[in-house]
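Lay summary. Proteins are chains of building blocks that fold into shapes, and those shapes determine what they do. In this project we predict the shape from the chain. Here is one chain we studied, written as its sequence of building blocks.
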Amino acid sequence: MTADPPLADVLAGFALGGALVSAEPVTGGHINRSWRCAIAGRDERVFLQRINTTVYRDPARLMENVAAITAHVTGVLARRGVPDAERRTLRILPTREGAPCLRHADTGSWWRAYRYVEGSRPLGRVGTPAQARTAAAAFGAFLEALDADGGVTLHETVPRFHDTPHRLAQLDDALRLDPRGRAAAVRAEADAILARRDGAGSLVALAASGEARGRAVHNDPKGTNVLLDEATGEALCVVDLDNAMPGIALHDFGDMVRALATRADEDERDLARVALEPDLLEALLDGWLPAVAPLLTDAEADHLVESGRILLLEQAARFLTDHVLGDPVYRTAREDHNLDRCRTQLRQLEDLERRRPGLEALARAAVRRHR
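And here is the predicted shape, written in a compact code that computers can read:
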């Protein structure tokens, strides 16, 4: 990315009714850069983001998805008479020309603005079954809303996003090119990923056969993407819609297993602290299935634990690919940061595989409870 232009110049391109008063960087995201901005004459703050065009190469098309999702979910909530609906979905703040995003004339950088959901906080890292259940229920309700009233049609903004064999092929290419001379040092991690190649296409096959139904999905269901009401602790709003696109429900559940069925940080360096936690998995099932179980095919219901295995394998490959290529996608804060992230995925994957019979039993029992 090029250097950021002055934020006041960027915000002047949006129909906000006033000038920038202050801007506070928001940390924690891997991809985009974000700020909370106070605007003169405006009670609610503005959430400003610079879109990472290395990852999202067609920002206008991306924002067409976001606009379609927010309009659809807002309509579903309104028709159902859901209280406090204004705080339960993102609201795009348009440019002065009425567009959902802005291309800065001098730098060519792309920007968007959302209404900041005041009185909210991210759920963040999951440490208890209650937190896991809250997060999963929010993502389950979001997926069900996307499917309601005939569903919403989205663009594929990142081609082959959850094509796991393709992600492993990208790792092959990165190891062969080795532009930073890192391949030799990560041979053990690469071998652990590529040894699982034969079983990497199970979700792709389900989708291709129609045994898993295509639908709009969130594709990034982690704790930081659920906003809670600061006063009540209730889940309010699912955010970060950049990866929302056509997929299958198992993509969301598998990524929840990856991100939310462990108490360890995604970049934990002490691998003894990394495990797949059965109590958190059971809470995810009991949070997500009440809204989603009626939408699942029998094959999808049978592959809940398998979806976690696949998403852990896929994300390990993505982190390692980025490390080998010099970290062009995922922002890093230290040397070997993406390698550390890869290693946590692999440790959690190994733990899932070791515990798999018991986890499968948990999943079958949960499906019976909620169908």
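What the prediction tells us: Residues 337-370 form the longest helix (34 residues).
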